[in-house]
Amino acid sequence: MEPRAEREAAAGSPPSLFELSGAVVSSAMGTLEREVWALPGQILQGILPLLNIYYLERIEEPALKKGLSTQPIWHKLWNDVMKIRPPKSENIKNWRKKFLETFFSNVLHGVLDVSSDPRLSDRRFSPLLHSSRHVTQLTICNMLQGVAELTAERNQRVLENLAGSLRTLKFRHLLTSDLSIRQSLSLLLHHLIHHGAVSQVSMCSWPVPDKVLLVLILSMSAGFWHPGKTLMHQGSPCSLCREESDAQGLLTQENGALLGSNQLCCSSTEQSETSQWGDSESRSKKVQAASAVALQEADPDSQASIELSRSSSGTVKTPVLCGLRSHPLQNLACQDVSCKVPPEYYIKGESSPSLPKRSSVGPAFQKPYRRFKTAVGRKRRCPRRNRRARADPEDLYDFVFAVAREEEEMAESLYESNAQERESIDDWAPSPADTPSFEDVGCTEGGSVGIIPLKAACHFRSISTLELFSIPLTGDTCRALGNLLSSWVSLEKLVLSYNGLGANVFCILSGLRALSHRRDCSLRVVRVSDVFSHIPSVELVWSILTAFPRLHTLSVSFDLKNQLEGNRPEGHSSSEAEIPESCLEQLEIRFPREPLQTSLLLPVLKASRSLQQLSLDSATISCPLEFGLLLQALKECNPGLKRLSFHDVNLADYQKEVLLLLQDPVLQEITFSFCRLFESCTAEFLSDIIQIVKRNSTLKSLKLPGNRLGNHRLVALADIFSEDSSSSICQLDVSSNCIKPDGLLEFAKKLESHILQRGGQIKFTHLRLFQNWLDQDAATAQEALRRLRAVCSVVSNTWDSSQAFADYISVM
Predict the structure, then answer these.
(1) Residue 73 above 80 pLDDT?
(2) Is residue 711 left, alpha or beta, with left meaning phi > 0 and alpha meaning psi from -120 to 50?
(3) DSSP secondary structure string, 352-403?
(4) CB of 231 within 8 A of CB of 416?
(5) Cα 154 to chain center, whole Å?
């Protein structure tokens, strides 16, 4: 017995009877699952840590009913399996979701081997299928790993789960991929965006983007998709499209001829932006005609191409294509009896032909078109057909431009006919001056920057947030994005960060200008940031607000000023146009060390009477008069302004103006960040600040980081909370102010005395102390922090001031 006892002692304490029983039960969960769910809570609590992730996830609801939480078990699983600390782990409330979402991604990308831990594998469950319904964010990297796996037939249910749960789709560090992977990606995006719930697409860190792949992602995010050979390659139409089409019933044919002499064919007026089809016979016939041509043009050599046969009445007979509710050829126009089928086009001036066109001006008309009389003495022009070989239907990069080119030519033809007859057409606004040729769109010097909106002829569901970080955008991709933006009515937030736009920013503006004319557009937030500014920051703000006055939030940020002055397209001077009254509520401008440009900024403020938050960063103020005009405009034109921020703006010589701002009866938050306020100030200036803040009952947040407060000024600020103060300050930020531990301790003691005098009644709740010299005396600093945390919430960090000073010296 002794040798056995020694072996047990060497191996640790033997498992208890309960643990042995729990291990047996967990191994037989396949047959005992229901019985385990019915166990009392105390027994069930001991079994939970012994279950694998599949049964642990399934038992979540019974455990909650018994008052048990599985979060500690999921947290331990994370530590054991992932072995890393996630960012902001203290804010994670649902470790179950966090674990299963990361588990799905790691298994998909081959990072995690489920056989490495017995808690991760079970022969009755599929890792991807089991965890997919918990995934709300998915990242696709490099060579699009995992895309082919998700679109495989065996993972159809996984894809269905993702379509219901996924909200954010991210692309990082993408590389060029082959055609088969792009086809798989297009199917994945079709399921997750067009038929799913994805609302945000973010792309970042793509130094040399593949144009075809980039425009594919952008186009499908905007709701446009030309299936082409993708569905042919799969051998059958999209099952989701087919189910939706079947749910709406069989489409019937119309009794009249569709493509008659001198007659325009258009979509029904009841067609919605969400691409929902009605039940009218006229619409169904047009859809059938469109689907036939779409399949034929998408793959002219395919055996699946549909033969068009025209009866004596001119009726087109064809089966229904999947996704007809939003197919590109939904709207067609024919202007001549000789046009037997919708004509094809190619982009003028390109070496290779583009895709056949899939859209027309149909949606611009909200009523059936009237028949046009042929102009006397002039032969009617029919849009030219493409006699070159067709391009690859998968080239969506060409497709985006093709749609815009067709709309332009159709518009010009209709306009010329109308001009000859002196007839007016309902709901047709653009003129030739408003619809420039596509070759002139956008980004060349002296060229026009108008963009013909993409009428949503094949519009599936689209996303609401688009973010592009560190992806160089050329003139071509900017034109493509501008075209997409022109009809992207579901887009609510657009973020373009470090894309090297330069003069191409006017392509984006043209798209925004066209989008602003859509009553149902949803765009409210635009953020643009880059290294170099092609035009002055305020002028770009002016241009954006002129193009899209319905914005609620606008942020423009540049690091450096472009030294190539005068190198911008003509005809874009913002001073030539007046800003209409805008809905702007938040405005952020980061100047690349350039003047404040009050002459341009003041009209922006006057047009933004709903402004609530203004942030000015790295601007240069030339004289007190300029600053005074700014303050006067804020007082007169922006009565609802609640938050005002200055960052890296030298205000050392503008003490009078600073005091006026602190007296404002409306402002609730004021930030003077790295503004050198106390660089050469007198004691009177600090005393004035304290007295003004004490009397201001509206101001709730005062942020003074990086202003060289030092110890003695910090101690003086404690008087803001004295017994005779009516201040409502809740938040005080004194980060980066050369504060030492002894000064902080004295501030804490003085604050405590003021609180005692006020009977413990104080509104002060938050204190920020980042990057101060608290490491010089750790004991004193800890004592000061202990006292302060008894009064308010203190946010600080462990900062090596000596190393920071050495870094500062090294770059001097």
Answers:
(1) yes
(2) alpha
(3) S--PPP---SGGG-SSPPPPPPPPTTSPPPPPPP--SPPPPTT-HHHHHHHH
(4) no
(5) 32
